[in-house]
Design brief:
0% strand; mainly alpha
């Protein structure tokens, strides 16, 4: 500030000195300066409170805006941390579900294999029983046909005891 005032005087003193240009003119610079200062003081008197109130309100608005932004920031950080916790819980739950599904799949696979084995065994037993029944039927039919042929043929003289012996030999 100490350097500005001498520089100001140094630059503007020649302007004031040479402004008259050597003629003797009467100027009303003092009156105009007084009027200007008076005008500025009246403006200040009329508008100072409004300007101060405007800037005070604007300052309060900015302050409130920053406070609201800070509140929103804190709320968002809390929501973000809650979302991260929920994400971790969801990851753990998904891993549990995958493990349960895998074990369930293994259990179902074993059960299906066991049931298929039992079904194959049952079918094999039924097939064996069916073959046994068919063999018995075929044997009975062959014996029946043989006896029918023997009895129908009158050329052969066979006794009941001989037929019984033949049947016992065939069956055995």
């Amino acid at each position: 500030m100490k350097k500005i005032v001498p520089l100001f005087i140094l630059f503007f003193l020649p302007v004031v000195v040479f402004a008259s240009a050597g003629e003797d003119m009467q100027t009303d610079i003092v009156q105009r300066s007084f009027n200007f200062v008076l005008f500025v003081l009246i403006l200040y008197y009329l508008l100072a409170d409004k300007i101060k109130a405007y800037f005070k309100n604007r300052t309060n608005e900015i302050k409130n805006s920053f406070e609201n932004i800070e509140k929103l920031k804190k709320e968002n950080e809390e929501k973000l941390s809650d979302a991260r916790v929920e994400l971790e819980k969801a990851k753990i739950l998904s891993l549990k579900i995958v493990d349960e599904a895998t074990s369930s799949c293994d259990t179902i696979e074993k059960k299906i294999i066991q049931e298929a084995g039992e079904t194959i065994e049952n079918m094999s037993k039924k097939f064996d029983e069916s073959i046994s029944v068919q063999t018995t039927k075929a044997t009975k039919k062959v014996v029946d046909d043989f006896i029918t042929d023997l009895l129908a043929n009158k050329d052969i003289d066979i006794k009941t005891e001989d037929i019984t012996d033949i049947i016992l030999k065939k069956v055995a």
